Amino acid sequence: MGNPWFETVAEAQRRADKRLPRSVSSALLAGSERGITYADNIDAFSELGLAPHVADLKSEKNISTSVMGMDLALPVILSPVGAQAIHPDAEVAVARAAASRGTANGLSSFASKAVEDVAAANPNTLMQVYWMGTREVMVQRLDRAKAAGVKGLILTLDWSFSNGRDWGSPEIPERLNARAMIKFAPEAITHPKWLMEFAKRRELPDLTTPNLASPQGEVPTFFGAYGEWMQTPPATWADVAWLRAQWDGPFMVKGICRVDDARRAVDAGASAISVSNHGGNNIDTTPASIRVLPSIASAVGDQIEIVLDSGVRRGSDVIKAMALGARAVMIGRAYLWGLAANGQAGVENVLDIMRGGIESTLYGLGHSSVHDLSRCDVVIPEGFTRSLGA
User: Fold this and answer.
1) What is the pLDDT along the chain (390 residues), one digit of tens a residue?
2) Residue 367: active-site member
3) 105: left (phi over 0), alpha (psi -120 to 50) or beta
4) Dist. CA 59–CA 69, nearest whole Å
5) Phi, psi (degrees; rounded to nearest 5) at 11
6) CA angle, corner 374, sides to 372 and 379, nearest 5?
7) Is residue 48 within 8 Å of residue 316, measured between CB atoms?
8) Could you point out which of 33, 139, 249, 251 has its C-alpha 20 to 30 Å from the C-alpha of 15?
9) What are the DSSP calls for 71-82, one per residue?
């Protein structure tokens, strides 16, 4: 039996691709239309250079930070991602991994595990919501999250899901009934290790959304919940301010790419924003998140906490984001590949990879704390940054 430990996120992805059925694996890859934004999210980090020192390096390393009232042992938060049924423990395994490494996890409204179970696994759980349903229903969902003990709210506004993929979108069944199982059996049978994880527990991958259950206890499927989102008129900034007023804890607006939107999030009373393009799953050809971060940080960084997501694969990526104005980053695909490769231990493995990369890069730059990072530590090529809506 091979060593379950892996040394890079790229290796986690390779193992996940090998373990998962093709349709499941391709769902994790995602990216809309031609995948230009997906690729730019990753490539942009490679365009940024670092400016290391060779003497007077600091042996002590402080990589802790605080976001939305939470003290974190490392500046990496596990982003909310829906339907994590790639592993039987799904979001609960992710929450346990985050807790074991002293950080926070986000829980999607479209998650396959209930908020009560996930928050019990990690006190530093953030509940992610979409603007969907009636205001009365939204308040009920917020009350449930509050009762479960979540630490903060993430309002995701950067998901249009309106564009297909040039390489084809995977077919995902609405329910795993007998007909669907027969259809997908050839894929599952050829990936016995993945299948056995579920078979040992006598269960099937869960494609329902328990956190969107009705007051009567009816639990919609993923696509049923998606239909509710599609039928809800998009949020205005007045709606965002109203939702923020319903929540008396930390409140993040996720999906900011423009300076004017960042300022509106401040005006709406948000305590944090995530500079994000939904990992390339919103409008394709949107610039990489790291390209728009500096202008947003310059405009509102002294008024609101800023985190970055989309394209983070290495600890050095985290350092670059923090040097350009982020307090922390959120990762999605990276930890999902770890989850698929080795469950909770795989997610912990990814966080350990991130920690190692953060510490070694910080050491090379001659700093003892991530809070000492600045733009002087990053080599920014001419024409790299984008300032949208300034």
Assistant:
1) 568 999 999 999 999 999 998 878 888 877 889 999 999 999 999 999 999 999 999 999 999 999 999 999 999 999 999 878 889 999 999 999 999 999 999 999 999 999 999 999 999 999 999 999 999 999 999 999 999 999 999 999 987 755 688 877 776 766 666 566 667 667 767 777 877 888 788 777 878 899 999 888 899 888 888 889 889 999 999 999 999 999 999 999 999 999 999 999 999 999 999 999 999 999 999 999 999 999 999 999 999 999 999 999 999 999 999 999 999 999 999 999 999 999 999 999 999 999 999 999 999 999 999 999 999 999 999 999 999 998
2) no
3) beta
4) 28
5) -70, -35
6) 135
7) no
8) 33
9) EESSSEEE---S
Q: Strand ranges (DSSP E) for the chain? A: 49-50, 65-67, 70-72, 76-78, 105-107, 125-129, 152-156, 251-256, 272-275, 305-309, 328-331, 378-379
Q: Is 107 exposed, middle or buried, given 0-12, 13-18 or 19+ CB atoms closer than 10 A?
A: buried
Spatial contact of 83 and 207, defined as CB atoms under 8 Å apart: yes
Q: From the candidates 53, 87, 191, 278, which is the catalytic residue?
A: 278
Whole-model pTM?
Answer: 0.94
